[in-house]
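Render this sequence as a predicted structure.
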Amino acid sequence: MLRTTTDVTRTATIASLYQAGEPIYELFDKVCLVYDGRMVYFGPASQAREYFVEMGFQPAPRQTTADFLVTGMSSYARVKSVRPVLYVLTSAVVTDPSARSLRSGFENQAPRTAVEFASHFMRSRHGVANREDMQAYRELYVGNKERKQAYMESAEAERPPWGGKSSPYTVSVPVQLRALVARRAQILRATLVLEAANLL
Protein backbone atom coordinates (compact mmCIF):
# COMPACT_ATOMS: atom_id res chain seq x y z
CA MET A 1 0.00 0.00 0.00
CA LEU A 2 2.81 2.43 0.89
CA ARG A 3 4.64 1.58 -2.33
CA THR A 4 1.51 2.23 -4.41
CA THR A 5 0.65 5.45 -2.56
CA THR A 6 4.23 6.68 -2.94
CA ASP A 7 4.19 6.03 -6.69
CA VAL A 8 0.74 7.48 -7.31
CA THR A 9 1.24 10.65 -5.27
CA ARG A 10 4.94 10.99 -6.22
CA THR A 11 5.88 11.80 -2.66
CA ALA A 12 8.57 10.70 -0.23
CA THR A 13 7.41 8.07 2.24
CA ILE A 14 9.09 7.28 5.56
CA ALA A 15 8.03 4.21 7.54
CA SER A 16 9.43 2.30 10.51
CA LEU A 17 10.02 -1.43 10.08
CA TYR A 18 11.30 -4.33 12.12
CA GLN A 19 13.00 -7.33 10.46
CA ALA A 20 11.92 -6.68 6.88
CA GLY A 21 11.85 -9.79 4.71
CA GLU A 22 13.48 -9.75 1.28
CA PRO A 23 10.21 -9.12 -0.65
CA ILE A 24 9.52 -6.08 1.55
CA TYR A 25 13.10 -4.85 1.36
CA GLU A 26 12.96 -5.00 -2.44
CA LEU A 27 10.12 -2.45 -2.43
CA PHE A 28 12.46 0.26 -1.19
CA ASP A 29 14.35 2.59 -3.49
CA LYS A 30 17.13 3.77 -1.22
CA VAL A 31 18.70 2.67 2.03
CA CYS A 32 20.58 4.79 4.55
CA LEU A 33 22.72 2.93 7.04
CA VAL A 34 23.61 4.82 10.22
CA TYR A 35 26.38 3.72 12.58
CA ASP A 36 27.02 5.64 15.82
CA GLY A 37 25.29 8.70 14.38
CA ARG A 38 27.30 8.67 11.14
CA MET A 39 25.91 7.88 7.72
CA VAL A 40 27.92 4.99 6.38
CA TYR A 41 25.79 4.24 3.32
CA PHE A 42 23.08 6.04 1.42
CA GLY A 43 22.20 4.78 -2.00
CA PRO A 44 20.11 2.30 -3.96
CA ALA A 45 18.72 -0.44 -1.72
CA SER A 46 19.50 -2.96 -4.46
CA GLN A 47 23.21 -2.14 -4.23
CA ALA A 48 23.66 -2.04 -0.44
CA ARG A 49 24.57 -5.72 -0.06
CA GLU A 50 27.10 -5.54 -2.90
CA TYR A 51 28.62 -2.35 -1.42
CA PHE A 52 29.42 -4.02 1.91
CA VAL A 53 30.49 -7.30 0.31
CA GLU A 54 33.00 -5.37 -1.84
CA MET A 55 34.15 -3.62 1.33
CA GLY A 56 35.03 -7.02 2.77
CA PHE A 57 31.99 -8.22 4.72
CA GLN A 58 30.46 -11.64 4.24
CA PRO A 59 26.70 -12.32 4.54
CA ALA A 60 25.66 -15.64 6.02
CA PRO A 61 24.17 -18.28 3.69
CA ARG A 62 20.53 -17.44 2.76
CA GLN A 63 20.70 -14.29 4.89
CA THR A 64 18.33 -11.55 3.74
CA THR A 65 19.73 -8.17 2.80
CA ALA A 66 17.98 -6.46 5.72
CA ASP A 67 19.35 -9.03 8.18
CA PHE A 68 22.82 -8.63 6.66
CA LEU A 69 22.61 -4.87 7.22
CA VAL A 70 20.90 -4.85 10.60
CA THR A 71 20.22 -6.87 13.70
CA GLY A 72 17.60 -5.19 15.96
CA MET A 73 16.29 -3.19 13.04
CA SER A 74 15.56 0.35 14.14
CA SER A 75 14.72 1.68 10.76
CA TYR A 76 12.80 4.00 8.54
CA ALA A 77 11.81 3.93 4.95
CA ARG A 78 11.82 5.70 1.72
CA VAL A 79 12.90 8.64 -0.39
CA LYS A 80 13.81 9.13 -4.02
CA SER A 81 12.94 11.40 -6.89
CA VAL A 82 10.81 9.33 -9.27
CA ARG A 83 9.92 6.51 -6.91
CA PRO A 84 10.41 8.38 -3.62
CA VAL A 85 11.77 6.33 -0.75
CA LEU A 86 14.35 6.52 2.04
CA TYR A 87 15.20 3.51 4.17
CA VAL A 88 17.24 4.24 7.28
CA LEU A 89 18.71 1.27 9.14
CA THR A 90 20.56 1.35 12.47
CA SER A 91 22.18 -1.28 14.68
CA ALA A 92 23.90 -2.76 11.67
CA VAL A 93 25.29 -6.27 11.48
CA VAL A 94 28.00 -4.88 9.24
CA THR A 95 28.78 -2.21 11.81
CA ASP A 96 28.25 -4.42 14.86
CA PRO A 97 31.74 -5.63 15.87
CA SER A 98 30.34 -8.74 17.55
CA ALA A 99 28.33 -9.74 14.46
CA ARG A 100 30.85 -8.95 11.71
CA SER A 101 31.94 -11.65 9.35
CA LEU A 102 34.85 -10.62 7.15
CA ARG A 103 35.79 -12.19 3.85
CA SER A 104 39.17 -13.84 3.60
CA GLY A 105 41.90 -11.32 2.83
CA PHE A 106 39.97 -8.32 4.16
CA GLU A 107 40.85 -8.72 7.84
CA ASN A 108 43.19 -5.72 7.76
CA GLN A 109 41.40 -3.70 5.08
CA ALA A 110 37.74 -3.43 6.10
CA PRO A 111 36.67 -0.40 8.17
CA ARG A 112 36.27 -0.96 11.90
CA THR A 113 34.96 2.27 13.41
CA ALA A 114 32.07 4.56 12.51
CA VAL A 115 34.55 7.22 11.37
CA GLU A 116 36.29 4.75 9.05
CA PHE A 117 32.97 3.55 7.61
CA ALA A 118 31.80 7.14 7.01
CA SER A 119 35.12 8.10 5.44
CA HIS A 120 34.98 5.09 3.13
CA PHE A 121 31.46 6.02 2.08
CA MET A 122 32.38 9.63 1.33
CA ARG A 123 35.09 8.40 -1.07
CA SER A 124 32.81 5.80 -2.70
CA ARG A 125 30.85 6.29 -5.91
CA HIS A 126 27.65 6.38 -3.83
CA GLY A 127 29.04 9.23 -1.73
CA VAL A 128 30.05 11.13 -4.87
CA ALA A 129 26.61 10.50 -6.42
CA ASN A 130 24.90 11.86 -3.29
CA ARG A 131 26.92 15.07 -3.39
CA GLU A 132 26.18 15.47 -7.10
CA ASP A 133 22.45 14.95 -6.45
CA MET A 134 22.48 17.58 -3.71
CA GLN A 135 24.34 20.06 -5.92
CA ALA A 136 21.92 19.46 -8.80
CA TYR A 137 19.00 20.08 -6.43
CA ARG A 138 20.52 23.33 -5.18
CA GLU A 139 21.13 24.55 -8.72
CA LEU A 140 17.57 23.69 -9.75
CA TYR A 141 15.65 24.97 -6.73
CA VAL A 142 17.68 27.12 -4.32
CA GLY A 143 17.43 30.80 -5.19
CA ASN A 144 15.32 30.10 -8.30
CA LYS A 145 13.09 33.18 -8.54
CA GLU A 146 10.92 31.74 -11.31
CA ARG A 147 10.07 28.63 -9.26
CA LYS A 148 9.41 30.77 -6.20
CA GLN A 149 7.05 32.98 -8.17
CA ALA A 150 5.27 29.96 -9.69
CA TYR A 151 4.82 28.47 -6.22
CA MET A 152 3.41 31.71 -4.82
CA GLU A 153 0.96 32.01 -7.73
CA SER A 154 -0.09 28.38 -7.27
CA ALA A 155 -0.67 28.89 -3.53
CA GLU A 156 -2.65 32.05 -4.22
CA ALA A 157 -4.81 30.27 -6.82
CA GLU A 158 -5.75 27.64 -4.21
CA ARG A 159 -6.80 30.26 -1.67
CA PRO A 160 -10.59 30.53 -1.43
CA PRO A 161 -12.15 33.97 -1.90
CA TRP A 162 -13.52 33.96 1.66
CA GLY A 163 -10.16 33.22 3.29
CA GLY A 164 -7.81 35.87 4.58
CA LYS A 165 -4.19 36.02 3.46
CA SER A 166 -3.01 34.56 6.76
CA SER A 167 -5.54 31.68 6.75
CA PRO A 168 -3.97 28.24 6.15
CA TYR A 169 -7.32 26.72 5.12
CA THR A 170 -8.38 26.09 1.53
CA VAL A 171 -11.92 25.00 2.41
CA SER A 172 -14.46 26.58 4.71
CA VAL A 173 -15.60 25.12 8.03
CA PRO A 174 -19.04 24.14 6.62
CA VAL A 175 -17.35 22.26 3.75
CA GLN A 176 -15.07 20.49 6.24
CA LEU A 177 -18.06 19.52 8.38
CA ARG A 178 -19.95 18.20 5.37
CA ALA A 179 -16.96 16.06 4.38
CA LEU A 180 -16.60 14.70 7.94
CA VAL A 181 -20.30 13.83 8.20
CA ALA A 182 -20.22 12.10 4.80
CA ARG A 183 -17.14 10.10 5.80
CA ARG A 184 -18.71 9.06 9.11
CA ALA A 185 -21.84 7.94 7.29
CA GLN A 186 -19.71 5.80 4.96
CA ILE A 187 -17.95 4.20 7.93
CA LEU A 188 -21.25 3.44 9.67
CA ARG A 189 -22.76 2.01 6.47
CA ALA A 190 -19.71 -0.23 5.94
CA THR A 191 -19.87 -1.38 9.59
CA LEU A 192 -23.53 -2.32 9.22
CA VAL A 193 -22.83 -4.27 6.04
CA LEU A 194 -19.99 -6.18 7.71
CA GLU A 195 -22.10 -6.94 10.78
CA ALA A 196 -24.94 -8.19 8.57
CA ALA A 197 -22.51 -10.41 6.66
CA ASN A 198 -21.21 -11.92 9.91
CA LEU A 199 -24.74 -12.62 11.11
CA LEU A 200 -25.42 -14.62 7.99
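Summary. Residues 2-141 form one domain. The CA atoms of residues 24 and 66 lie 9 Å apart.
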